[in-house]
Amino acid sequence: MRSEYYFLVGLVFVTASGCASNGSGIIIDKKGTDMSRYEQDLAECQEYAKQVESQTAGSAAGGAVVGGVVGAIFGGGEGALKGAGAGAVVGVARGESATGQEKKTVVKNCLRNRGYKVLN
User: Fold this and answer.
1) pTM (global) more than 0.70
2) Which of 12, 100, 101, 105 is found 20 to 30 A from 50 (Cα to Cα)?
3) Quick check: helix, strand or coil at residue 21?
């Protein structure tokens, strides 16, 4: 039981460390761009992206249910508990990833609508 706990905790940390901020990794064509204005626009676009509803809770609950069912089928009562825990962790990871991608899309679209040439 202890090794599964450490594995799940480690998985959460690896997943969390892989999440980038809303605007990181966005590449724009800087030619003719007022960079101080861009920084202000980027910050405003990142604020809009914060409105993206987090999908984490729903994904965790769904993952826990599926993991619990699979654990119950293959491992009995204790297997259901372990499966639910593992399913919740995987669900959270998927939800965070999808939410992060959606936020990045919002930032990119916002910048494009403000006249920036987003290259990626």
Assistant:
1) no
2) 12
3) coil
